[in-house]
Amino acid sequence: MIVVAGEALIDLVPQGVGALADLKPALGGGPYNTAVALGRLGSPAAFCSRTSRDAFGEALLDGLRRAGVDVSGVQRGGEPTTLAVATVGADGSAAYSFYVDGTADRLFSAPAALPAGTRAVSFGTCSLVLEPGASAYEELLRTAAGAGVFTALDPNIRAGLIPDADAYRARFRGWLPSVTLLKLSEEDARWLGGSPREWLAAGPSAVVVTHGGDGLTAHTRDGAVHTVPGEKVAVVDTIGAGDTVNAALLHGLAARDALSPEGLAGLGAAGWTALLRFAARAAAVTCSRAGAEPPYASELREE
């Protein structure tokens, strides 16, 4: 079981370019997309979050169920669902505005225990910014790491939600001793400051940096650097691409029985190259269609 911890929200996805394009509601949120992608790839997955009892909240849970994700541990509340309004640029890149005041996912509380058989827990995005839920997710991260569970972190920076950038950067550095695999975009890396070498020295066993259409790079504790190019595809938008990478990495590591520091160290050049190529292919499929629509296992060729 791979547990994904974090927010579920509604993306209002533009049906064209520019600020005044028509908007279509879509199921979303970085952790939510990661959980759906894991389910579609065939990994046993569970979602750990708090969702509204409103119609959007019900639709979010239905989407997880359709993907085969266990939602038995999801907390519920009467508050509204968070909304994220996307604006897509001419190159397909997306920017976001968020409506988060008084929403259900902010009131998440850390569970007493993870599901039986949990092999990894994934964290990231808005859930690690918005209090009081952020502190509860942080508690879960530290508890899981302390129990020897593989932890993955994708900070997926949404700068507009972060009132104190320096405080968040300090908090990020404080998470690293509890993180096994750090994945982030090169834009996030620039915003956070530091380098893969510095982050590895603080705790993670591997750091994966995404470069948009130019591919992915993995940095490991032994000093190795593994890079693969991106998959060429006609980009509709990039919504959910990074979340798909998260899921593909976790799915591929689980398939290789490598959800551990030792497992990451044992992948070698061939293992990392195959894993990164798989993640690049999965992300390309997501970019080829509107909104966060990660691929099913049947859509990805195996190497």
Q: Alpha-carbon distance between the termini? A: 24 Å
Average pLDDT confidence is: 92
Largest sheet: 8 strands, mixed
Shape type: globular
Order of helices and strands: EEEHEEHEEEEHEHEHHEEEHHH
Q: Strand percentage, roughly? A: 15-25%
Radius of gyration: 18 Å
Low-pLDDT segments? none
SS summary, helix count? 9
Q: Helicity, in percent?
A: 25-40%
Strand line-up of the largest beta sheet? 4-1-9-10-11-12-13-14
Please report the total strand number as a whole number. 14
Determine the structural class based on helices, strands and strand pairing.
alpha/beta
Which SSEs are present, and which pair or pack?
Elements: E1 2-5, E2 9-14, E3 23-28, H1 30-41, E4 45-48, E5 50-52, H2 55-66, E6 75-77, E7 83-88, E8 94-99, E9 120-124, H3 133-146, E10 150-154, H4 165-175, E11 181-185, H5 186-192, H6 196-202, E12 206-210, E13 216-220, E14 225-228, H7 241-255, H8 261-265, H9 268-287
Parallel strand pairs: 1-4, 1-9, 2-7, 5-6, 9-10, 10-11, 11-12
Antiparallel strand pairs: 2-3, 7-8, 12-13, 13-14
Helix pairs in contact: 1-7, 7-9
Description:
The protein has helices at 30-41, 55-66, 133-146, 165-175, 186-192, 196-202, 241-255, 261-265, 268-287; strands at 2-5, 9-14, 23-28, 45-48, 50-52, 75-77, 83-88, 94-99, 120-124, 150-154, 181-185, 206-210, 216-220, 225-228. The chain has 303 residues and is α/β, with parallel strands linked by helices. An eight-stranded mixed beta sheet has the order 4-1-9-10-11-12-13-14, sandwiched between helices. Strands 3-2-7-8 form a four-stranded mixed beta sheet. It has a two-stranded parallel ribbon with strand order 5-6. Helix 7 runs antiparallel to helix 9 (268-287). The longest helix is centred in the C-terminal third of the chain and has 20 residues, at 268-287. The chain starts with a strand and ends in a 16-residue tail after the last helix.
